[in-house]
Write a structure and sequence with these properties.
This protein is of the alpha/beta class. The chain has 2 domains: 163 residues, Rossmann fold (3-Layer(aba) Sandwich); 31 residues, no CATH class. It has 5 helices and 7 strands.
Protein backbone atom coordinates (compact mmCIF):
# COMPACT_ATOMS: atom_id res chain seq x y z
CA UNK A 1 0.00 0.00 0.00
CA UNK A 2 1.09 3.55 -0.67
CA UNK A 3 2.53 5.48 2.25
CA UNK A 4 1.35 9.06 2.71
CA UNK A 5 3.90 11.68 3.52
CA UNK A 6 3.52 13.45 6.87
CA UNK A 7 1.97 16.91 6.67
CA UNK A 8 4.65 19.38 5.73
CA UNK A 9 7.16 16.59 5.16
CA UNK A 10 8.93 15.55 1.99
CA UNK A 11 7.06 13.75 -0.76
CA UNK A 12 7.22 9.95 -0.60
CA UNK A 13 10.00 8.33 -2.57
CA UNK A 14 9.01 5.51 -4.95
CA UNK A 15 10.01 2.08 -3.72
CA UNK A 16 12.16 1.67 -6.79
CA UNK A 17 13.18 3.92 -9.62
CA UNK A 18 15.59 3.88 -12.50
CA UNK A 19 17.64 6.94 -13.30
CA UNK A 20 18.64 7.21 -16.92
CA UNK A 21 21.19 9.63 -18.31
CA UNK A 22 20.95 10.72 -21.91
CA UNK A 23 23.78 12.45 -23.80
CA UNK A 24 23.33 15.91 -25.22
CA UNK A 25 25.46 18.64 -26.75
CA UNK A 26 25.46 21.71 -24.53
CA UNK A 27 26.73 25.10 -25.78
CA UNK A 28 29.64 26.21 -23.63
CA UNK A 29 31.90 29.10 -24.54
CA UNK A 30 35.58 28.78 -23.70
CA UNK A 31 36.42 31.76 -21.52
CA UNK A 32 39.59 33.77 -21.78
CA UNK A 33 42.13 34.10 -24.55
CA UNK A 34 44.05 31.02 -25.74
CA UNK A 35 47.54 31.12 -24.30
CA UNK A 36 50.74 30.00 -26.03
CA UNK A 37 51.46 26.31 -26.03
CA UNK A 38 54.45 26.77 -23.71
CA UNK A 39 52.09 28.20 -21.08
CA UNK A 40 50.40 24.84 -20.57
CA UNK A 41 50.44 23.37 -17.06
CA UNK A 42 51.17 19.96 -18.61
CA UNK A 43 54.69 18.64 -18.89
CA UNK A 44 53.87 17.10 -22.25
CA UNK A 45 51.28 18.21 -24.77
CA UNK A 46 50.44 15.80 -27.57
CA UNK A 47 48.01 16.35 -30.44
CA UNK A 48 46.77 13.46 -32.58
CA UNK A 49 45.20 14.41 -35.90
CA UNK A 50 42.76 11.59 -36.45
CA UNK A 51 41.49 10.90 -39.96
CA UNK A 52 42.50 14.32 -41.29
CA UNK A 53 44.88 14.69 -44.26
CA UNK A 54 48.39 13.70 -43.21
CA UNK A 55 49.99 16.80 -44.75
CA UNK A 56 48.31 18.97 -42.09
CA UNK A 57 50.62 17.63 -39.40
CA UNK A 58 53.60 19.82 -40.32
CA UNK A 59 51.54 23.01 -40.51
CA UNK A 60 49.84 22.38 -37.18
CA UNK A 61 53.12 21.53 -35.48
CA UNK A 62 54.71 24.77 -36.70
CA UNK A 63 51.83 26.74 -35.19
CA UNK A 64 52.12 24.92 -31.86
CA UNK A 65 55.74 25.13 -30.70
CA UNK A 66 56.51 22.65 -27.96
CA UNK A 67 53.59 20.40 -28.91
CA UNK A 68 54.18 16.93 -30.33
CA UNK A 69 51.89 16.32 -33.26
CA UNK A 70 50.98 12.94 -34.74
CA UNK A 71 48.69 12.02 -37.62
CA UNK A 72 46.74 8.80 -38.04
CA UNK A 73 45.03 8.16 -41.35
CA UNK A 74 42.90 5.54 -43.01
CA UNK A 75 41.84 4.65 -46.52
CA UNK A 76 38.55 3.30 -45.21
CA UNK A 77 35.35 4.90 -46.44
CA UNK A 78 32.71 3.05 -44.43
CA UNK A 79 32.19 4.51 -40.91
CA UNK A 80 32.84 1.22 -39.12
CA UNK A 81 36.05 0.65 -41.11
CA UNK A 82 37.30 4.16 -40.42
CA UNK A 83 36.56 3.85 -36.73
CA UNK A 84 38.25 0.47 -36.34
CA UNK A 85 41.37 1.59 -38.18
CA UNK A 86 41.68 5.01 -36.56
CA UNK A 87 40.89 3.89 -33.01
CA UNK A 88 43.49 1.12 -33.25
CA UNK A 89 46.16 3.64 -34.25
CA UNK A 90 45.14 6.10 -31.54
CA UNK A 91 45.28 3.31 -28.96
CA UNK A 92 48.77 2.33 -30.07
CA UNK A 93 49.99 5.92 -29.87
CA UNK A 94 48.51 6.44 -26.41
CA UNK A 95 49.98 3.16 -25.21
CA UNK A 96 53.39 4.30 -26.44
CA UNK A 97 53.01 7.61 -24.59
CA UNK A 98 52.07 5.82 -21.39
CA UNK A 99 55.13 3.60 -21.68
CA UNK A 100 57.57 6.48 -22.12
CA UNK A 101 59.51 7.47 -19.02
CA UNK A 102 58.72 11.05 -18.02
CA UNK A 103 57.90 13.26 -15.07
CA UNK A 104 54.73 15.29 -14.80
CA UNK A 105 51.41 15.16 -16.58
CA UNK A 106 50.51 14.72 -20.24
CA UNK A 107 47.64 16.27 -22.18
CA UNK A 108 46.53 14.24 -25.19
CA UNK A 109 44.13 15.96 -27.57
CA UNK A 110 42.63 13.98 -30.44
CA UNK A 111 41.32 16.20 -33.24
CA UNK A 112 38.99 14.64 -35.78
CA UNK A 113 36.49 15.76 -38.38
CA UNK A 114 33.13 16.74 -36.96
CA UNK A 115 31.43 15.66 -40.17
CA UNK A 116 33.14 12.44 -41.21
CA UNK A 117 33.91 10.93 -37.83
CA UNK A 118 31.43 12.44 -35.37
CA UNK A 119 30.11 9.02 -34.34
CA UNK A 120 33.65 7.95 -33.44
CA UNK A 121 34.09 10.85 -31.03
CA UNK A 122 32.38 9.33 -27.97
CA UNK A 123 34.22 6.04 -28.42
CA UNK A 124 37.61 7.75 -28.72
CA UNK A 125 36.74 9.84 -25.67
CA UNK A 126 35.93 6.67 -23.73
CA UNK A 127 39.30 5.22 -24.73
CA UNK A 128 41.09 8.29 -23.36
CA UNK A 129 39.02 8.32 -20.16
CA UNK A 130 39.90 4.69 -19.54
CA UNK A 131 43.56 5.50 -20.09
CA UNK A 132 43.30 8.36 -17.59
CA UNK A 133 41.73 6.08 -14.97
CA UNK A 134 44.60 3.64 -15.34
CA UNK A 135 47.24 6.39 -15.64
CA UNK A 136 46.22 9.51 -13.67
CA UNK A 137 49.05 11.52 -15.22
CA UNK A 138 47.29 11.34 -18.59
CA UNK A 139 44.49 13.78 -19.43
CA UNK A 140 42.60 13.12 -22.65
CA UNK A 141 40.30 15.23 -24.78
CA UNK A 142 38.58 14.66 -28.13
CA UNK A 143 37.79 17.65 -30.35
CA UNK A 144 35.27 17.22 -33.17
CA UNK A 145 36.03 20.05 -35.53
CA UNK A 146 34.16 21.22 -38.60
CA UNK A 147 36.84 22.65 -40.84
CA UNK A 148 39.52 20.22 -39.70
CA UNK A 149 41.35 20.75 -42.99
CA UNK A 150 42.87 24.10 -42.02
CA UNK A 151 46.04 24.11 -39.85
CA UNK A 152 45.24 27.50 -38.33
CA UNK A 153 41.74 26.47 -37.31
CA UNK A 154 43.06 23.25 -35.81
CA UNK A 155 45.76 25.08 -33.84
CA UNK A 156 43.26 27.62 -32.50
CA UNK A 157 40.90 24.85 -31.38
CA UNK A 158 43.75 22.97 -29.70
CA UNK A 159 44.88 26.00 -27.69
CA UNK A 160 41.34 27.05 -26.81
CA UNK A 161 40.36 23.63 -25.52
CA UNK A 162 43.66 22.94 -23.78
CA UNK A 163 42.55 25.55 -21.25
CA UNK A 164 39.42 23.46 -20.65
CA UNK A 165 40.83 19.96 -20.66
CA UNK A 166 38.22 18.93 -18.09
CA UNK A 167 35.77 18.88 -21.02
CA UNK A 168 36.59 15.41 -22.39
CA UNK A 169 34.49 15.66 -25.57
CA UNK A 170 34.07 18.92 -27.45
CA UNK A 171 32.40 19.77 -30.75
CA UNK A 172 32.93 22.93 -32.79
CA UNK A 173 30.12 23.50 -35.27
CA UNK A 174 28.78 26.64 -36.96
CA UNK A 175 31.26 28.77 -35.01
CA UNK A 176 29.84 27.49 -31.71
CA UNK A 177 31.52 25.33 -29.09
CA UNK A 178 29.55 22.46 -27.52
CA UNK A 179 30.51 19.93 -24.87
CA UNK A 180 29.01 16.50 -24.35
CA UNK A 181 27.01 16.40 -21.12
CA UNK A 182 24.66 13.88 -19.53
CA UNK A 183 21.14 14.88 -18.55
CA UNK A 184 19.24 12.76 -16.01
CA UNK A 185 15.90 11.39 -17.05
CA UNK A 186 14.12 9.62 -14.22
CA UNK A 187 11.49 7.00 -14.89
CA UNK A 188 9.46 5.50 -12.05
CA UNK A 189 9.77 1.75 -11.65
CA UNK A 190 7.34 -0.11 -13.88
CA UNK A 191 6.86 -2.95 -11.41
CA UNK A 192 8.27 -6.44 -11.42
CA UNK A 193 8.74 -8.27 -14.74
CA UNK A 194 7.85 -11.58 -13.03
CA UNK A 195 4.33 -13.02 -13.06
CA UNK A 196 2.99 -14.63 -9.89
CA UNK A 197 2.43 -18.32 -10.49
CA UNK A 198 4.74 -18.28 -13.50
CA UNK A 199 7.42 -20.83 -14.30
CA UNK A 200 10.94 -19.62 -15.07
CA UNK A 201 13.96 -21.54 -16.30
CA UNK A 202 17.31 -20.09 -15.24
CA UNK A 203 20.19 -21.35 -17.36
CA UNK A 204 23.81 -20.80 -16.42
CA UNK A 205 24.67 -18.68 -13.42
CA UNK A 206 26.11 -21.63 -11.52
CA UNK A 207 28.64 -19.34 -9.91
CA UNK A 208 25.95 -17.66 -7.85
CA UNK A 209 24.14 -15.33 -10.23
CA UNK A 210 21.42 -17.91 -10.83
CA UNK A 211 20.67 -18.10 -7.10
CA UNK A 212 20.47 -14.31 -6.88
CA UNK A 213 17.97 -14.22 -9.76
CA UNK A 214 15.91 -17.02 -8.20
CA UNK A 215 15.73 -15.20 -4.85
CA UNK A 216 14.67 -12.00 -6.60
CA UNK A 217 11.87 -13.81 -8.45
CA UNK A 218 10.69 -15.41 -5.20
CA UNK A 219 10.74 -12.06 -3.42
CA UNK A 220 8.80 -10.22 -6.13
CA UNK A 221 6.05 -12.81 -6.66
CA UNK A 222 3.37 -14.30 -4.43
CA UNK A 223 4.17 -17.91 -5.23
Amino acid sequence: PAVSAPAGGPAPVPASATTLFVPRWTPRTATGVPRPADGSPYRRHVVILCGTPAFLRGGVERLLPGVRCHAVTTAGQRPETRFTDLSRQVFQLVRTLVGEAHDGTTLVQVVTSGTEDEEAGPALSALLRTTALENPRITGQVILLDGASDPGRIADAVLENARHADDPLVRHRDAERHVRTWTPRTAAGAGTPWRSGGTYLITGGAGGIGAVVARRIARDTER
